[in-house]
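Renewal narrative, Specific Aim 1. Our central claim is that a sequence can be written position by position from structural information alone. The example that follows is taken directly from our test logs and has not been curated for this report. It begins with the structure tokens describing the chain, in the order in which they were read.
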């Protein structure tokens, strides 16, 4: 793997731990993940960084040159923007027509036709129901207007009654007395009111009339008495007859009766007629006000009832209209159209990964039927192991080679790095952590389609004028990085400190001088590396800690019963998650490897070449 040479940062214990962790996961995940690089693993990546060579094929010379470091990984092409086209019709629906897969469509183009016979029938029924609800609503609206108008008329009539009875009350007792009694309210004693100084109106007028009649009757009686007395004197003298005296006496008696009647009439008025008339006028006014309140409450209740009925009819009409709109919407959605321009890709399902779209197929609500990738902007998605993902940054330059177009090298940039590791195949190796990384291509060549396999190189760093040797010249001896230097006295084992590396060369930080020749294999008769007992004990302790951590690691869980086979692509994904058989494999350099184990040095690229 391109990046910092793992053996430069690992103890012997960690190296053994990494080797054990990758014994069976490499076998189990070989068809699902093309990860390159755990401990002791470098990717075949860069085409730059010259591999210095010596005078013969067995050795190479340590030289200073440019070193280009990249992370390489296989991935698949995907559209950066892709829309899932789902079935929006509720319940289950049957497909009666669909467009061919792979066709490029524009926004609004017809993709799938669902059976809509049932929706057509529901639409007709709902239209009738909605019209009936609308008629009932309009009738309730008119009835509400009538009830409001009736209330206004009744309230107006009741208000006039209150006004007229108050006028009658004031008319009878006078305004001052009537207003005072109205302000006091409660029970009123009407008998004493006849003596009130504030009494006025018809009552006072009637009282005065009756009192005047008494006065007039008394005066007439006095005159009649005087006349009778004179008539008697004249009769005694013989001036008048007895009939005339009788007539005057009869007139006197008539005046006496008239006086008694006038007094009786006044007494009846004071005792009975006045209290009765006053109380009736007062009661009529009070009852008129109460009737107004009753009319107000009764008509308000009728208005509220009519309003409630109107609200009910309005809500019923709204609900029926909503149902009608929904049926129309569902009927429109039975014809599924493209929400954006893109290429038609059928959704896959089941272990056999068959398309869900077919004539007569039953689909459910919100089921994904088609993926519609926008081919105007494409990307390559790769999975980077946790050991290298930290070296990649957003905006990093990347180079992609599409397997279908091996002669074209596309450029792009890293636009997305997942925050959490991918958990799609967690059951194969729970300890494996790979992060989805997106590389957006700068241009989309003709013929590029989602799902195509691609090889990606992400530029990590470019070092100028660094001391380097071929990567196959660095070995492990007792967990320590060493090189075998060719000297006149024979091979010399020397410790080195390594830096960055690519597929051909590795940076040497300490332990080697420019111009020295190093073996590309462990020569026979090379002396063993000498280390102190303290350092050996420390490394053994680190190894035991690594073994203990490995023992605590839970074994990989068996795949779930419903998990798809590892050689089958997931629904909606590319058919080629696993790397192709001819994909480049990682190279491992280990201490004590034989000459046959170590690969021959790579031929150097032209000087000054770039990735």
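The sequence written for that structure reads:
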């Amino acid at each position: 793997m391109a990046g910092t040479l793992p053996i430069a940062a690992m103890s012997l214990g960690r190296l053994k731990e990494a080797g054990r962790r990758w014994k069976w996961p490499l076998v189990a995940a070989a068809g699902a993940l093309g990860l390159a690089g755990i401990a002791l693993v470098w990717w075949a990546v860069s085409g730059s960084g010259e591999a210095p060579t010596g005078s013969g094929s067995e050795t190479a010379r340590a030289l200073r040159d440019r070193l280009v470091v990249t992370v390489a990984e296989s991935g698949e092409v995907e559209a950066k923007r892709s829309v899932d086209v789902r079935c929006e019709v509720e319940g289950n629906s049957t497909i009666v027509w669909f467009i061919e897969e792979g066709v490029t469509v524009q926004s609004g183009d017809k993709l799938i036709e669902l059976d809509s016979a049932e929706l057509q029938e529901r639409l007709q029924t709902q239209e009738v129901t909605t019209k009936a609800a609308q008629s009932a609503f309009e009738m309730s609206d008119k009835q509400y207007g009538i009830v409001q108008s009736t209330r206004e008329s009744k309230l107006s009539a009741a208000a006039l009654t209150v006004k007229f009875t108050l006028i009658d009350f004031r008319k009878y007792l006078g305004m001052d007395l009537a207003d005072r009694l109205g302000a006091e309210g409660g029970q009123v004693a009407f008998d004493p009111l006849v003596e009130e100084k504030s009494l006025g109106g018809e009552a006072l007028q009637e009282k005065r009339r009756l009192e005047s009649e008494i006065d007039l009757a008394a005066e007439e009686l006095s005159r009649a008495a005087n006349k009778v007395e004179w008539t008697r004197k004249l009769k005694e003298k013989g001036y008048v007859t007895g009939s005339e005296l009788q007539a005057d006496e009869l007139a006197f008696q008539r005046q006496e009766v008239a006086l008694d009647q006038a007094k009786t009439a006044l007494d009846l008025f004071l005792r009975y007629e006045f209290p009765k008339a006053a109380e009736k006028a007062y009661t009529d006014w009070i009852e008129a006000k109460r009737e107004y309140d009753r009319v107000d409450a009764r008509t308000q209740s009728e208005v509220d009832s009519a309003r409630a009925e109107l609200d009910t009819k309005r809500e019923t009409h709204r609900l029926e209209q909503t149902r009608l709109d929904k049926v129309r919407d569902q009927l429109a959605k039975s014809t599924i159209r493209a929400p954006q321009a893109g290429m038609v890709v059928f959704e896959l399902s089941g272990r056999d990964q068959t398309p869900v779209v077919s004539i007569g197929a039953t689909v459910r609500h919100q089921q994904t039927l088609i993926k519609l990738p926008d081919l105007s902007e494409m990307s390559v998605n790769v999975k980077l192991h946790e050991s290298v993902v930290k070296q990649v940054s957003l905006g990093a330059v990347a180079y992609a080679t599409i397997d279908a177009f091996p002669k074209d090298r596309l450029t792009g940039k890293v636009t997305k790095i997942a925050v959490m590791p991918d958990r799609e195949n967690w059951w194969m190796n729970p300890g494996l952590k790979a992060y989805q990384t997106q590389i957006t291509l700068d241009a989309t060549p003709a013929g590029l389609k989602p799902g195509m396999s691609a090889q990606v190189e992400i530029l990590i760093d470019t070092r100028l004028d660094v001391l380097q040797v071929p990567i196959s010249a660095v070995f492990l001896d007792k967990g320590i990085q060493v090189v075998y230097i060719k000297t006149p006295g024979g091979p010399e084992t020397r410790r080195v400190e390594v830096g960055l590396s690519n597929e051909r060369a590795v940076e040497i930080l300490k332990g080697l001088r420019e111009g020295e020749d190093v073996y590309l294999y462990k020569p026979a008769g090379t002396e063993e590396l000498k280390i102190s007992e303290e350092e050996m004990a420390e490394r053994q302790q680190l190894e035991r800690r690594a073994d203990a951590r490995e023992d605590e690691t839970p074994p990989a869980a068996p795949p779930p019963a419903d998990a798809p086979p590892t050689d089958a692509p997931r629904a909606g994904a590319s058919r080629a998650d696993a790397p192709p058989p001819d994909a480049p494999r990682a190279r491992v350099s280990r201490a004590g490897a034989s000459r046959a184990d170590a690969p021959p040095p790579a031929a150097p690229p032209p000087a000054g070449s770039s990735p």
